[in-house]
Amino acid sequence: MEESDFIWMDGELVEWEEAKIHVLSHGLHYGTGVFEGIRAYEQEDNGSAVFRLEEHMDRFIDSAKITNIDLGYSKKELIEAVENTIKENKLKKCYIRPIAFRGYSKLGVNPREVPVKVVIAVWPWGAYLGEDAIENGVSVKTSSWSRHHPNVMPTKAKATGNYVNSALAKSEVNKDGYDEALMLTPEGNVAEGTGENLFIVRNGKLYTPPSSSVLEGITRKSIIQLAEDESYTVKEEKITRDQVYRADEAFFVGTAAEVTPIASVDNRKISNGRGEITNELQNKFMELVKGRVEKYKGWLHRVEQN
């Protein structure tokens, strides 16, 4: 992991190696935290901009609300903290990780009266699934671990505890030699990857699992709009495993994964790894996040460097 210089912690910038918490912090033991994944991109004019920062902060605040975490900061204050952290680290492009979690006071399942820590870290980060994956696609295997039922875990919150599920699935398929896991709903339909939303292409139309079954991804929302603006039909509906096997193309989307083609699922080849529509949407997405498409510049939050 490539380190930066400073991390924002509860209103103050501290040196990277000094950003520490107590080993008996509640969030460490019980998963009582929420987080976001955001990216800043270097722009065409050599400036810097964060992709859909306001929408990410809205989801961060919503996740905190769902999990009964009082952030103690307004949306405006959190956005300013992101800006300042990027500036102080002198980064034009980076990954951004806001996280809020229950800290240290007493240990026990009940989180009430346990103080909340709010942290924002930024660091350089390349392609999440690897540079080769962006070009040639990833190999995917259906995990034996199912996605959460909404009455078991809060599936609309990007909660830290939820990601034990993802970690189990990811390690399972990686051990078997695959790049990423495909996760199913408790009912057996396709949900998403361990940290990405899924799209498939069939007869020129795009399909993605309904929002009721997945985390409502910011990149997912953007790709839906981008595809529709390019006159593609996008349908949100239940998808089965064998529908994925029959897909003409398939790809993952997410802040970390961006737009990553899927080459195979459960040893079934999907197109040539990077289909025509996947390629088009991937290229358009990378153009717009770098500020090269006027129509989508409203999705970019400029960070003026010193």
Outline of the structure:
The chain is of the alpha+beta class and 306 residues long. It contains eight helices and 17 strands.
General description of the model:
With 306 residues, the chain is of the alpha+beta class. The protein contains eight helices and 17 strands. The protein has helices at residues 26-30, 53-66, 75-88, 131-136, 163-175, 218-229, 241-245, 276-289, and strands at residues 6-9, 12-15, 33-35, 38-42, 48-51, 94-102, 116-123, 138-142, 180-184, 190-192, 197-202, 205-208, 234-236, 249-254, 258-265, 268-269, 300-303. Strands 8, 9, 10, 11, 12, 13, 14, 15 and 16 form a nine-stranded mixed β-sheet that branches. The mean pLDDT is 95.
In round numbers, the mean pLDDT is 95
Spatial separation of the terminal alpha carbons? 26 Å
What is the total tally of β strands? 17
- Low-pLDDT stretches are none
- In angstroms, what is the radius of gyration? 19 Å
Question: What percent strand?
Answer: 25-35%
Instruction: Give the overall shape.
Output: globular
Helix content: 25-40%
Summary tags:
globular, alpha+beta, 9-stranded mixed β-sheet, 306 residues, 8-stranded antiparallel β-sheet
Strand and helix map with partners:
Blueprint: E1 6-9, E2 12-15, H1 26-30, E3 33-35, E4 38-42, E5 48-51, H2 53-66, H3 75-88, E6 94-102, E7 116-123, H4 131-136, E8 138-142, H5 163-175, E9 180-184, E10 190-192, E11 197-202, E12 205-208, H6 218-229, E13 234-236, H7 241-245, E14 249-254, E15 258-265, E16 268-269, H8 276-289, E17 300-303
Parallel strand pairs: 8-9, 8-15, 12-13
Antiparallel strand pairs: 1-2, 1-7, 3-6, 4-5, 4-6, 5-17, 6-7, 9-10, 11-12, 11-14, 14-15, 15-16
